[in-house]
Amino acid sequence: MTSTIFLPVIAAVVVLITGLVLGYSSSARRLEKRYAVRLDKARERDAALLNEAKKEAEAIKKEEVLRAEERFVELKTRHEESINARNRKLNEAEKKLRIQREKLSAEIQQQKQEKRELERLEAAYKDGLRGLELRRAELDKALRAHVEGLEKISGLTAESATQQLMKSLQEEANKRAMTHIQEVIEQAALTAEMEAKKLVIKAVQRIGVKQAVEHAVSVFAIGSDDMKGRIIGREGRNIRAFEAATGVELIVDDTPEAIVISCFDAVRREIARLSLQRLVADGRIHPARIEEVVEKMRRQLEEKIVETGKHTMVLLGIYDLHPELIKIVGKMRYRSSYGQNLLQHAREVAKLAAVMAAELGLDAKLAKRAGLLHDIGKVSDTESELSHAILGMQWAERYKENPEVVNAIGAHHDEIEMTSLISPIVQVADGISGARPGARRQILESYIQRLKDLENLALGFEGVYKSYAIQAGRELRVLVESEKVDDKRASALSFEISQKIQNEMAYPGQVRVTVIRETRAVSLAK
Length: 526
Hints:
By secondary structure, the protein is mostly helical. The chain has helices at 2-154, 158-208, 226-232, 237-246, 266-282, 287-316, 323-331, 342-359, 364-373, 388-398, 403-411, 422-435, 442-459, 487-504; strands at residues 217-221, 249-251, 258-262, 336-337, 340-341, 464-470, 475-480, 512-516. The strands form three sheets. Strands 1-3-2 form a three-stranded antiparallel β-sheet, covered by helices on one side. Strands 6-7-8 form a three-stranded mixed β-sheet, covered by helices on one side. A two-stranded antiparallel ribbon has the order 4-5. Helix 4 runs parallel beside helix 6. It is flat and about 205 Å long.
């Protein structure tokens, strides 16, 4: 009964176990399949990774091989270039050696030819010398024979014959000299009175006509010698500032109560004289005051120039002249032509032209006007390629002068055709005024022109704003802008200017070039 009870249980257990076994078997098979699939996938991934690794290895291998080949080619190229460079150097050296060898060979050949030529000339010289000696001996022998023959014929020796010849020549020379002296004395007696009259007339002309030759210096009188020290200033700063502002040279020497102002330009010299007069009277002498006074005197002189022009118009009876022409006429007072004051020359020409025009029945006032304006082209402040006659003619046209006056100005040196009877009259009057004794001096004019050229040469350099020729042209003082020229450039600029003067200008002695550069700081307290 017991077995009967447990049989179903056992059967159930068996069935359960059988089910479990069967379930496990199927699960195991599924797991096995799953693992088999994963294993295949893993193997495929490993194979793919292996193939990829092999490909990368091949690529790296190829890249390294290419790098090695490129390095090899580069090293080979460098090696070939170095070999080629070495070969070129060797070829050049070989070529130079070959050229030197050929040159030496040519020189050796030339020396051999010269040696052979010298030997030939020496042999010819020796032959010629022997021939000359033989010829000299023959000539000496012939001369002795000739002298002996002459001595036999004349009965005199050679020495006594020479003495007699010299004596006769001396007597003849004395006779001729006495005859010439007598003729000179007789001629002098005949012309003495005429020559004396000529000398007297010349002397009267030279003394009777006023000469207006402009000098290059002015003497300024001061109250006491103590003022000289104040003008010079501490360490010379006042005199340097004065010279820089006016462009003149102050000469302070042992002359009692006097200072010399030296400058070839009369306008600068007059400005300096007036400025010095104002400074000495005021007593305040320092660089800032000097610049202020110089500028004020410059304006005052411009007003004086206009007054001089107007005064000249009144003296000559000329009216309706353009203000600019009046100013130009006033400037003539401070200009010279060949040492002759230009304003005095213009007045003289105007008066001569008026007199001659009146004698010929022409317009005397128009001739006087043309004579006064004929040299206005010489007052130009800038360099011009035109002559002063053409330049003056252009100015007269610009300021609406009479056409006859314009033609007279341009034609007084025959540079244009004369179209009016006034023109030859002005030309003749100009010739008379310039040709009279003592009127002109060529040397002074050329000297002043040389100083102007010296100043203009320095102004042509960059950074230069002022230049002054002082000490009679022996020194050129150049003022430069501190913003454009530094200390190093100033030194080089001095050398360049001196070299240009040396290469382009003709001058006596030496010219010292001094370049001045100064920096100023100015501020105002309000």
